[in-house]
Automatic annotation (TrEMBL):
Species the sequence originates in: Diaphorina citri
InterPro entries reported for this sequence: CH_dom, CH_dom_sf, HOOK_N
Cellular component annotations (GO), alphabetically ordered: centrosome; cytoplasm
Major site of localization recorded for this protein: cytoplasm
UniProt-recorded name of the protein: Girdin
Alphabetized UniProt keyword annotations: Coiled coil, Cytoplasm
Pfam families found in the cross-reference section: HOOK_N
GO molecular function terms noted in the UniProt entry: dynein light intermediate chain binding; microtubule binding
Length: 1081
C-alpha cells in the first residue's frame, strides 16, 4: 500500500499545477479549497461544471464527509455529466474515462492522482468547447504565462489528440495507428473487466452452493415419491405392452412410408424457404435499385440546374466585361469633367476680370454722359445766342428801313417791342424743348443703367445656377465612382462564387459519373436477379403444387407462413434499428459488450441444456433397462418360490419315507436301508436330480441377486442424477428469465434508437426541402439581379444624356464669355441680347425642371439600389450557408460510399463463410450416409434408431438455421456501423463458433446413438454382466473404432433410403451452388 500511495510532494505539485490553478480561478472563493481532501470531495469540481452546464442531467452531489461510498457517487455523477455533455452537445466520444472507484476509495494513491488529472483534463476540454467558453478563456488569459502555456498543452491533449477524446467530425483525418492503439486500449479494458467479473462470479458461487443443497434434499424426497408412483404405473403398463407390440409391428411399415414422405416434404419445404429468403433479398435489392434511380434522377435535375448556372456565369462574365468597359468610359468622363472643372475655375476668374472692366466702362460712360450734358448745354446756349444775334441783326436792318420811310419815334418803339416779345417767346420755347430733351436724355440714361444692372444680376444668377449644377454633377460623379467601387467588389465576389460553383459542379459531375457506373452495375445485377426471380417463382409454383398433396404439408405451410411473417417483421424492425445505430455508436459498444457476455452465457446454457437432454435420454434408457431388470427379477422370484415349494415337497416325501434330513445316524445303516428299499432308491435318484436343479437355481439366484444389487445401485445413481438435472433445469429456467428481461431492455433501447433514426430521417428530408427552396430563391434573385442591371443600364444612359446637356451648357457658357467680350458694342447689340437672354432663360428653366425630375428619379433609383444591395448581401449570406450545407452533404455522401464499399467487402466475406458452412454440411451429410448404412444393417433396432437420428438431424438443422439467421441479423446491424474492421472479426469468430458447435453436436449425436444401440443390444441379454458392456463401450469410445464398426456391416442398404439420401444431398448442393444474394441489413 505504501508503494502505491503518492507522496506529499507529488500531491503539492499537483495542487500547484496548471489544472488546479485553473479550477481555483473558476471558483467564486478560491480560499475554500485548502487541501487535496477538499478537491477529492468532488463538490468544487461539480461547482465548476455547473458554470459550464447550468442544467446537468445528474445532480446528486453531496458533501462526502470522508465517506468513500458518497465520494464514489459524487464522482460517478460528475463523470456521467461530462460524458453526456461530450456525446450530446459536442458530438465527441470519450475513449478514456477516470476510474471512479479508485478516486473514491484511494484518492491519495498514484492511480487516484492520475485519474483526478484525467477528470480535470476532461472538465477543461468541456469548458473550452462549451457555449460559455469566452468567459473561461478570459479567465485563462488572466493567469500567469507559464500556467497559460501548460493549459494550452492540456487543451491540445483533449482537442487535437484522439487518444482521450475522439471527435466524430475529424474521424476521417485520424491516422490508423492512433485508431489501432485506441482499439488495443479498449480490448485491454475489456479483458480487465472480464477478469473482475469472473472473480465476482467465483465469490458468488459458494454462497449459492449451500442454498442448492437444501433445495436438492427437498427435490430428492419428491423424486422418490414420483419413482414409487412410476413403478406402479410400469407394472400396469407392462400388461398393455404385449398388446401394443403387435400393433407396433403393423404401424412400423406405415411409419416408414410416412417418414420417407415427410423427409421429401421437409426437403421441399426447406428449399421453398430458401427460395423465399432469396426472393426477399431480391426484393430488397430491387427497392435499393429504385432508390438509386431516384437519386440519379435528382442528380440529373441538379445537372440541369448546373447547366443553367453555367449559362448564368457566362452572362455574368459578359456583364462584368460591360461593367469594365463602362468603368473605363466613366473614368475617361471623370478625367474630362475634372478638366472642365479646372476650365470653369479659369472662366470664373475671367468673369471677375470682365466684371471689373464692366464697372470701369460704366464709370467712363457716366463721365461721358456728364460731358455730353455740358456740351449739349453749351450747344443750346450757343444756338440761342446765335439765334438771338440773327434776330438782332434782322431787327436792326428792318428798323433802319422803317426809320428811313416813317418817322423815327413811333416806329422804333413798336419794332423793338415786337422783336423782344418774339425773342422772349422763342427763348421760352427753346427752354421748354431743352428741358424736354434733357428729361428724355436722363430717362434714357437711367433706363440704360437699370438695364445694364439687371443684365449683370441675371448673369450672376445664371453663374450661381451653373456653379450649383457643377457641384451637383461633382456629387453625382462621386456617387458614380462609389457605385463603380461597389460594383467592382461585387464583381470579385461573383467571380469567387462562380469559381466555387464551378468546383461544386465538377465534383457533382464526378459523383454523377460514379453513380452512373453504380447504376449500370445495379441494372445488370437487377436483370440477373429478375431472371433468378422468375426461376424462383417457377420453382415456388412447383413447390406450391407439390405442397397441396397432404393435410400435414398444409399445416406446415401455415406454420411456415406465420414464421415468415414474424421473420419479415423482425427483419423490418432490425433494418430500422440498424439504420438508427449509425449515430449512437457509444451505446452500441456497451450493448455489444453486454451482448457478447450474454451470448457466452447463452452458449454455456445451451451446452448445459444439451447435457441435460443427453442425461434425460440416458435416464429414459436406464428406466427402460430398470423395467426389463424388474421383469426378470419378478420371473426369478416366481422361479425361486416354485423351487422352494419343490424343496418342501421333497422334504415331506423324505419324511414319509422315514428319512429325516436332520438325523445324524451312521452312514452304513442309512445305506443299507436305502439299498434295501427300491422306493428309497427311486426317491434318492429323484432327490439327486432335485438337488442338482437346486444348485443350478441357487447359482441363478446368486446371479440375479448380483444383478438386483447392480440395478439398485444404478437406480440410486440415476435418481441422484435426476435430482441434479432438475436443479440444473431450475437454474437454467431462472437464468432464462433473467436473459428474457435483459432482452426486453435491449429491445427497448433498440426502439429508442429507432425513434432517433426516424427523427434524423425527418430532419434530412426537411433539409432537402430547404435546399430546394433556397435554389428557387437563388433563381428569383438572379432574375431580380438581371432587372437591376437593366435599370442600371437605363440610369447610365440618362447619365450620358445629362453629360450631353452639361456639354451644351458649357458651350453656352463659352457663348456668354464671347458676349462679355463684346460689351463695348452693348448699345448696338442690346436688343439682340435681350431676345437671346429670354430664349436662354426659358431653355434654362426647362433644363432645370428636367434636371430636378432626373434628380428625383436618380434618388428613387439610388434608394432602390440600396435596398437591392441589402437584399443581395442577405442572399449571398444565405447562399454561403447553403454552400456549407451542400459541402456537409457531400461529406456525408462520401461517408456513405465508404460504408457501401465496406458492406460489399463484408458481403464477399459472408459468401466465403457460407460456402465453408455448406462444405461442412456436406461433410455432415456424408457422415449421415455412413450412419444410415450402419443403422439399416441392424434390423431389430433400425426403426427406433432412424427415428432418433432423424429427430437429432432435424434439431441440428434447426439450430443451423437459427444460427444462420442470427449471423444475418448481426451482419445487417454491422452494415450501418462505422467500425467495420472490428465487426468483421466478430462475424468471423461467430461463424467459427457455429462450425465448432455443429461438429461437436454431430460427434455427440454419433456417440450417443452408437452407445444407445450397444446398450439396447446388451439390455436384451440377461446373462451378460454390466462390466462386459462397459469394457466394450470403453473399447468403442474413439471415433476411429466407431467408424470401423460402422463399415464392418453390410454396405448395401434398401433402394428407398438411397433415393431419400440422394434427394437431400441434391437440395443442399443446389443451395450451395446458388450465389448468396443477401446483403447485410
Amino acid at each position: 500500500m505504501s508503494s502505491n500511495m503518492a507522496t506529499s510532494t507529488e500531491i503539492e505539485e499537483f495542487l500547484k499545477g496548471p489544472l488546479v490553478t485553473w479550477l481555483l480561478s473558476c471558483l467564486s472563493n478560491p480560499d475554500r479549497l485548502s487541501d487535496y481532501e477538499d478537491l477529492a470531495d468532488g463538490i468544487y469540481i461539480h461547482e465548476v461544471y455547473l458554470l459550464i452546464d447550468p442544467e446537468p442531467v445528474h445532480q446528486s452531489v453531496v458533501p462526502s464527509l470522508r465517506n468513500a461510498s458518497v465520494r464514489i457517487k459524487n464522482f460517478n455523477t460528475i463523470v456521467k455529466n461530462i460524458k453526456s455533455l461530450y456525446e450530446e452537445e459536442l458530438c465527441q466520444i470519450v475513449l478514456v474515462l477516470p476510474d471512479v472507484l479508485i478516486i473514491g476509495r484511494e484518492p491519495e494513491s498514484k492511480q487516484g492522482l492520475e485519474n483526478m488529472k484525467l477528470l480535470l483534463l476532461l472538465l477543461l476540454g468541456c469548458a473550452v468547447q462549451c457555449p460559455n467558453k469566452e468567459t473561461f478563456i478570459e479567465r485563462i488569459k488572466e493567469l500567469p504565462v507559464e500556467s497559460q502555456h501548460a493549459l494550452v498543452d492540456c487543451i491540445k491533449q483533449v482537442t487535437e489528440n484522439q487518444d482521450i477524446v475522439l471527435s466524430l467530425d475529424n474521424c476521417e483525418g485520424v491516422p490508423t495507428e492512433v485508431m489501432v492503439s485506441n482499439v488495443k486500449a479498449l480490448a485491454k479494458e475489456r479483458d480487465r473487466y472480464l477478469q473482475t467479473w469472473r472473480l465476482v462470479e467465483e465469490k458468488r458461487n459458494p454462497s449459492i452452493g449451500n442454498s442448492e443443497c437444501q433445495h436438492l434434499a427437498v427435490e430428492l424426497a419428491d423424486l422418490k415419491s414420483k419413482l414409487r408412483k412410476q413403478r406402479l404405473e410400469l407394472e400396469e403398463k407392462s400388461e398393455h405392452l404385449t398388446e401394443s407390440r403387435d400393433e407396433l409391428e403393423h404401424h412400423k411399415a406405415l411409419i416408414n412410408r410416412m417418414k420417407a414422405e415427410m423427409l421429401e416434404l421437409r426437403a421441399e419445404a426447406r428449399s421453398g424457404k430458401a427460395y423465399r429468403d432469396e426472393v426477399d433479398a431480391l426484393r430488397e435489392r430491387a427497392e435499393r435499385c429504385d432508390r438509386l434511380e431516384s437519386e440519379i434522377q435528382r442528380y440529373k435535375d441538379k445537372l440541369t440546374d448546373l447547366e443553367y448556372y453555367k449559362s448564368r456565369v457566362e452572362e455574368l462574365r459578359q456583364d462584368n466585361r460591360v461593367l469594365d468597359e463602362t468603368r473605363e468610359m466613366l473614368e475617361e468622363q471623370l478625367a474630362k469633367a475634372r478638366k472642365r472643372g479646372d476650365h470653369t475655375l479659369e472662366l470664373e476668374s475671367t468673369i471677375l476680370q470682365y466684371k471689373q472692366a464692366i464697372n470701369e466702362i460704366a464709370l467712363e460712360r457716366d463721365a461721358n454722359a456728364e460731358k455730353l450734358q455740358q456740351l449739349i448745354e453749351e450747344n443750346t446756349n450757343l444756338s440761342l445766342l446765335s439765334k438771338s444775334n440773327q434776330c438782332v441783326d434782322n431787327q436792326s436792318v428792318s428798323s433802319v428801313d422803317l426809320n428811313d420811310l416813317a418817322s423815327p419815334g413811333s416806329g422804333d418803339n413798336s419794332l423793338s417791342e415786337q422783336l423782344t416779345s418774339s425773342a422772349q417767346a422763342k427763348a421760352l420755347r427753346l427752354e421748354l424743348e431743352n428741358k424736354r430733351l434733357l428729361s428724355t436724355i436722363e430717362s434714357l440714361h437711367e433706363n440704360a443703367f437699370y438695364e445694364s444692372g439687371e443684365r449683370i444680376l441675371e448673369l450672376e444668377k445664371e453663374k450661381k445656377k451653373l456653379s450649383l449644377q457643377v457641384e451637383d454633377l461633382e456629387e453625382t460623379k462621386r456617387r458614380l465612382s462609389a457605385q463603380c467601387t461597389e460594383y467592382e467588389s461585387k464583381f470579385t465576389k461573383l467571380e469567387t462564387e462562380i469559381r466555387k460553383i464551378n468546383e461544386s459542379y465538377q465534383n457533382l459531375e464526378l459523383q454523377i459519373q460514379v453513380r452512373n457506373d453504380e447504376l449500370d452495375n445495379m441494372n445488370r445485377e437487377k436483370q440477373k436477379l429478375e431472371w433468378k426471380n422468375k426461376e424462383l417463382e417457377l420453382n415456388m409454383e412447383i413447390n406450391k403444387q407439390l405442397s397441396n398433396n397432404t393435410e400435414e404439408i398444409n399445416e406446415y405451410k401455415t406454420k411456415l407462413a406465420n414464421c415468415e411473417k414474424e421473420i419479415k417483421k423482425c427483419k423490418e424492425a432490425l433494418e430500422s434499428k440498424a439504420e438508427s445505430l449509425d449515430k449512437l455508436t457509444n451505446k452500441l459498444e456497451s450493448m455489444e459488450k453486454e451482448h457478447v457476455s450474454l451470448t457466452k452465457q447463452i452458449e454455456d446454457q445451451e451446452n448445459e441444456l444439451k447435457k441435460y437432454n443427453d442425461l434425460k435420454r440416458e435416464m429414459d434408457e436406464l428406466d427402460s433397462k430398470y423395467q426389463v431388470d424388474k421383469n426378470t427379477l419378478s420371473v426369478l422370484q416366481n422361479d425361486l418360490v416354485n423351487e422352494k415349494l419343490k424343496t418342501t415337497h421333497l422334504k415331506n416325501s423324505l419324511d414319509k419315507l422315514g428319512l429325516a434330513m436332520d438325523d445324524q445316524t451312521d452312514a452304513e445303516n442309512i445305506l443299507e436301508k436305502i439299498l434295501s428299499s427300491p422306493e428309497i432308491l427311486n426317491a434318492v435318484k429323484k432327490k439327486l436330480g432335485v438337488e442338482h436343479f437346486n444348485d443350478e437355481s441357487s447359482l441363478n439366484n446368486a446371479k440375479l441377486e448380483v444383478d438386483l444389487k447392480t440395478s439398485q445401485s444404478q437406480i440410486s445413481s440415476l435418481t441422484s442424477q435426476h435430482t441434479a438435472l432438475q436443479l440444473a433445469n431450475s437454474q437454467l429456467v431462472a437464468e432464462k428469465e433473467e436473459l428474457a428481461k435483459e432482452l426486453k431492455q435491449i429491445l427497448a433501447n433498440h426502439n429508442e434508437l429507432l425513434q432517433d433514426q426516424m427523427t434524423m430521417t425527418k430532419l434530412h428530408e426537411q433539409l432537402n426541402m430547404e435546399y430546394e427552396s433556397v435554389v428557387k430563391e437563388i433563381k428569383v434573385l438572379k432574375s431580380t439581379l438581371r432587372d437591376v442591371k437593366n435599370e442600371n443600364k437605363t440610369v447610365k444612359e440618362q447619365y450620358s444624356q445629362l453629360k450631353v446637356s452639361y456639354e451644351s451648357l458649357q458651350a453656352e457658357m463659352e457663348q456668354l464669355k464671347f458676349e462679355s467680350h463684346s460689351l463695348s458694342n452693348l448699345r448696338a447689340e442690346h436688343s439682340k441680347l435681350k431676345d437671346d437672354f429670354r430664349i436662354l432663360f426659358t431653355a434654362n428653366e426647362k433644363l432645370k425642371a428636367d434636371f430636378r425630375a432626373l434628380q428625383e428619379e436618380h434618388k428613387g433609383n439610388h434608394m432602390e439600389k440600396r435596398k437591392l444591395t441589402l437584399s443581395l448581401t442577405e442572399l449571398e449570406g444565405e447562399l454561403a450557408n447553403r454552400d456549407d450545407a451542400i459541402s456537409a452533404l457531400s461529406v456525408q455522401l462520401s461517408k456513405y460510399q465508404n460504408k457501401l464499399e465496406m458492406a460489399t467487402k463484408m458481403n464477399a466475406n459472408l459468401e466465403d463463410d457460407r460456402r465453408k458452412l455448406m462444405e461442412h454440411v456436406t461433410n455432415l451429410l456424408a457422415q449421415y450416409h455412413e450412419l444410415l448404412t450402419h443403422s439399416l444393417e441392424d434390423k431389430d433396432h433400425y426403426h427406433e434408431e432412424e427415428k432418433n437420428f432423424s429427430d437429432k438431424l432435424n434439431n441440428l438443422h434447426r439450430q443451423k438455421e437459427k444460427l444462420e439467421e442470427k449471423i444475418m441479423e448481426h451482419y445487417r446491424k454491422l452494415d450501418s456501423c462505422s467500425s467495420s474492421s472490428k465487426k468483421k472479426s466478430f462475424g468471423a469468430n461467430l461463424v467459427r463458433k457455429v462450425r465448432k458447435a455443429g461438429s461437436e453436436l454431430i460427434n455427440k449425436s454419433r456417440k450417443s446413438w452408437h452407445e444407445d444401440s450397444l446398450r439396447k443390444d446388451r439390455g436384451t441379454d440377461s446373462d451378460t454382466s454390466l462390466e462386459d458392456v462397459r469394457s466394450k463401450q470403453g473399447d468403442l469410445e474413439t471415433p476411429g473404432t466407431r467408424r470401423t464398426l460402422y463399415y464392418s456391416g453390410d454396405e448395401h442398404a434398401s433402394s428407398s433410403t438411397n433415393e431419400q439420401e440422394e434427394k437431400m444431398s441434391r437440395t443442399l448442393l443446389d443451395k450451395d451452388k446458388k450465389p448468396t444474394t443477401q446483403e447485410p441489413g
